[in-house]
Design a protein that fits this description.
Blueprint (H helix, E strand, L loop, with lengths): L18 H9 L11 H14 L3 E5 L2 H12 L5 E6 L3 H4 L4 H4 L4 E5 L9 H7 L9 E8 L12 H13 L3 E6 L2 H8 L3 H4 L5 E5 L10 E5 L2 H13 L8 H14 L3 H16 L4 E3 L11 E3 L4
Parallel strand pairs: 2-3, 2-4, 4-5, 5-6
Antiparallel strand pairs: 1-7, 6-7, 8-9
Helix pairs in contact: 1-11, 2-11, 3-10
Length: about 300
């Protein structure tokens, strides 16, 4: 094996637990979380719900499971439909779980280059209540947007989208697997950025150093009860899981501000790549921690 130093740039999921996290894992107070008796998990969920301004927070193994649980909650009734961007992670990279498992139909609208969905496209996609159609239950957006290069959906946009969803009595779910990056970029809190959402997925292992885990934030007791129930049927209930949940607690309290360093490094990398003859890289499109580049057509 080569001893040449390398820098891992493939994904922010390669972050390693910090020394503080490793100590916390060794010392974590644990109980059986299936029985609701893990004090570390209980404290973490309560703290997260309060911190982000939601009724409840549910700890899950992955963000993919969290998104799926959210769809099971919002689309509990048969004949439901969700609206997704055509480049959404939920649509492309999660095996269509909203359909194969949650039983929901999906209607896609085009993602704009900045990751947004045009409001007029969303409004057009919301079905009228008519016997030929499924019933639109939820609109799902991604912040930051992976396939659009880590682009940030701003607070004003989300407020407008939230108002549109409320107009038609449709739920708004945010796949916030990297929403901490969005909040850092905008200089506001995640709580402010998600005020319009009915549910939010937060990933704890993308850039934040936790070894695994996600949180599903929900607004109502009814949704929280359903989410807990659906986590069980998906195999997401875990026993003495405080041993890793403690890392998530450190992640949301100690690691978020450091994401600004990732953003600065990504911009520096993009500028360096753009300066190489034959390499195509849109520096202006680099808003957070993702850099997309390729070879110039002339090469």
């Amino acid at each position: 094996m080569s001893n040449t130093p390398t820098v891992e740039l493939r994904s922010d999921t390669f972050t390693q637990p910090t020394s503080e996290m490793r100590r916390a894992m060794a010392e974590a107070e644990c109980g059986d979380d299936v029985w609701g008796l893990d004090p570390t998990v209980n404290a973490f969920q309560k703290e997260a719900a309060e911190k982000f301004g939601f009724h409840s927070a549910l700890y899950l193994p992955t963000a993919t499971m969290s998104n799926l649980v959210a769809m099971l909650v919002h689309c509990e009734k048969r004949g439901s439909e969700i609206i997704l961007g055509d480049k959404a992670h939920m649509h492309i990279y999660e095996q269509g779980g909203y359909s194969t498992i949650a039983g929901a139909h999906c209607r896609t609208v085009p993602n704009q280059p900045d990751g947004t969905l045009r409001l007029e496209d969303v409004e057009f996609a919301i079905r009228p209540f008519e016997s030929h159609y499924p019933i639109t239950r939820a609109v799902c957006v991604e912040n930051t947007h992976n396939m659009c290069g880590g682009r940030v959906l701003g607070k004003d946009y989300l407020e407008s989208l939230g108002a549109l969803c409320k107009k038609y009595d449709v739920k708004l779910h945010i796949d916030g697997s990297r929403i901490f990056n969005a909040a850092v970029k905008l200089g506001i809190s995640v709580k402010e950025l998600t005020e319009q959402a009915d549910s939010v997925t937060l990933c704890l292992s993308k850039g934040l150093s936790a070894p695994l885990g996600a949180l599903l934030l929900t607004r109502t007791e009814a949704d929280a009860v359903l989410a807990h129930r659906f986590r069980k049927v998906l195999g997401g209930n875990m026993r003495q899981v405080g041993v890793v949940a403690c890392c998530g607690r450190i992640a949301i309290n100690e690691m978020v501000d450091r994401l600004a360093e990732d953003h600065q490094n990504a911009k520096m990398l993009a500028e360096g790549l753009a300066s190489i003859d034959g390499v195509a890289c849109n520096v202006e499109a680099v808003e957070t921690n993702m850099v997309r580049w390729g070879l110039d057509k002339k090469v």
